[in-house]
Amino acid sequence: MKISSKYFPALLLVLACFIRLVYFYQFQGNPFFGHLPKLWDQTLYHKGAQAFIEGDPFARAPGEPNQQSPFYQYFLGIVYFFFGVELTAAWIVQLTLGVVSTFLVYAIAGRYINQGPAFMAAVMFTFYGGNWFYECTLYRATLVTLLILSACLLLLRFAERPSIVLLIGSAISLSFLTQARTNLFLFVPFALAYLWRKVFSLNGTGRKWLAGYLVIFFLASLPLLFWVKQIHGNWGPYDQTGGENLYLANSPDYSVRSVVHDKKYRSLLESERLGTLPALRLILKDVTERPLDVTKVYLDKIYYYFNNYEIPTTHNYYLSSEFSPVLKWGSIPFGVIATLGIIGFFWSWKNWKRLTLLHAFFLGNLLAYLPFFIFSRYRLSIVPFLCIFSAISLQVIFQRVRENDIRSLSLIMISVLTLGWFLKTAPLPEGKIRILDYINLSSAFLNNHKSDDDVRAYSYLERSWELSRSLPADLRKSKIIRKALSHFYLKESNSFRHQRDTVHEEFALRRAISFNFSSSPLHDRYSRNLIIKGEPQKALLETLIALTLNPNSFDLNLLAGKIYITELSYPLWGLYHLLQAQNLSEQVPLSLKDSIQNLQDVLKLNSIPFDLPKLSSQVRELLTGKILSPRSFPTNPFLPVESSNWTSDEVYNYQLGLYQHLLFDRGVNPAFIYYQLGFLEMKFFNNDYSSFYYLEKAWDHGLQNQQLATLLNELTEKIDTRSLSYSKQK
């Protein structure tokens, strides 16, 4: 049954709305529906939009670097202004923009090919799942796609029939496109070259058109240029993410498959921000010194740009499809669109004069993104043009079928199958779903506060751990997973605290610490729990551990002082930590001042009444001789031989002395102290995590020998590949 072309718009509207309604309904079962993770670009956009509607004309996101163009923040701010600060409102608006983009694809295609193939192009665009997937995120990809299609259509219209209205619309849309993503400024010379050939070079009137076009383009860009000047102090590009990303994305060591960047460059990145010009100089140096490696990087980028694999950044297409059957089964794979689109692009080259703008926008997208990282959301703006070229390919195939041209049809089908096989899924070594994707999903479940979501959160952490331990050592991300596990158990401990379940609260806290031993707040929290339980000696050790991690903490010094004084009856030690706390306080609490004065009286130190420097010095001198001096220092890092027969009290006292040494910095190589702490944890407590932490600290402080290197490697392998036996217990 042949459908009349007059019904195509109505049918497109039904299809575009229906598929998005289904996806949006299923998306509500995804934990990201109600969760906006921290430290993602989405957070920057969300905070900036909030700031804008709250009165900040520069849409500055508090606590964020604000290095990206604020154009999307302004767009979000307008949405929030009319519909309230709701993620759902933003997603619904973006889904609506996706529907509008469908009609723009249909309109653009209809100017080059018949209505049937144009409808086919729009249908392919409609059923590409990447569109709806990113429409339900706070990324600018959807808005950029709409702007690039608007710019293309208005350029076509203006070239066909120049008018003031179309000139203004075309110039503004092109300006907005560059403001939304700075790298798309590359489209400006393409657009001007096209208009020069079609309009501007024809006569004197055309030159006036050109002048007007440039003026309007500049005026539309001026507000954001002032934003750059105000925020960054220069008249540079709208996006100022620094030269680091530019260099890393063009480094000869960059790999799309492993996302491994130039390790030699990392020290520079950590020490200072790299400007764009220095980055370009480094890139040029690499091009001259390692041309083959750089060429390979770009060939890889082109391959992955058109590959079927949806390369994730923060949101993972394949993980989200677990919560959406329509995304999993109802989407046209990108590889199909890319295969047909590339063939259509080359097939249509013989008509390049007529299809100039389509070719320009296709190449412009590719060239604009190749210098940067290759992610699926970055290629979303090329999808409409791939769909149009795909429709051209299908039109040619159908034509050859009608003509019964077996030879040409065979050649075309061989090309399609060969290219399709070449562009088949080539995921990262971790697979389609990465370790970080499982961790992000776990975090989303933890933050949704729904029944049994913590169980599901843990199950995804288990998945991330199992995936990590199956990978080669250089690709594991065990440290990241352990931190995520620590966060999980901390949340569990908070839950048990609310339930007044002290047994499971302690269990969860100990688990949290084991996975993230270097967290001072965790040791602090556990110490306070131990005080409540009536275990002051253990509490003191946890407090001292926290202090070695964060010695300039007012609260920790105050806590240590109180434990020494009220729980263990060591007033001199208590005075020392109270003095440390006072030295760290800008405004001395009266209660603290009174406590110090009372201790002075008790300890008969009134010869130096409240002279803090002298008092602190005096107390430190008195305590120096009271530190439980560890034996074998400073030449031998090993534990004393007789340690094998130590009682639990002897072990405790030895630990106490080691921590006091660290806090007092008595001139002993801290590497020796860390080494002994590591062996204590290993020998007496059988704790691989804390042992590894201390032994690694010993290595970092200069105690580097083959024995320690071997031990660290063994511990690393043991920790990274062990079965995750911990579980949520209630």
Written description of the protein model:
The protein is an all-alpha fold. The chain has 4 domains: 15-238 and 321-415, no CATH class; 434-517, no CATH class; 526-626, Serine Threonine Protein Phosphatase 5, Tetratricopeptide repeat, CATH 1.25.40; 630-730. Helix content is 68%, strand content 0%. The chain contains 34 helices and no strands. The protein has helices spanning 8-27, 41-53, 71-83, 87-110, 115-126, 129-135, 141-160, 164-180, 187-200, 204-232, 243-250, 263-271, 276-289, 291-306, 317-320, 325-329, 334-347, 356-369, 383-402, 406-422, 435-448, 453-469, 478-498, 502-515, 520-533, 536-549, 554-567, 571-583, 590-603, 612-624, 648-664, 670-684, 688-700, 706-721. α1 (8-27) runs parallel beside α5 and α28 packs across α30 (612-624).
Provide a concise account of the structure shown.
This protein is mainly α and 730 residues long.
Q: What percentage of the residues does DSSP assign to strands (E)?
A: under 5%
| Helical/strand content category | mainly alpha
Rg over alpha carbons? 32 Å
Calculate the mean pLDDT score and round it: 87
**Quaternary state, please?**
single chain
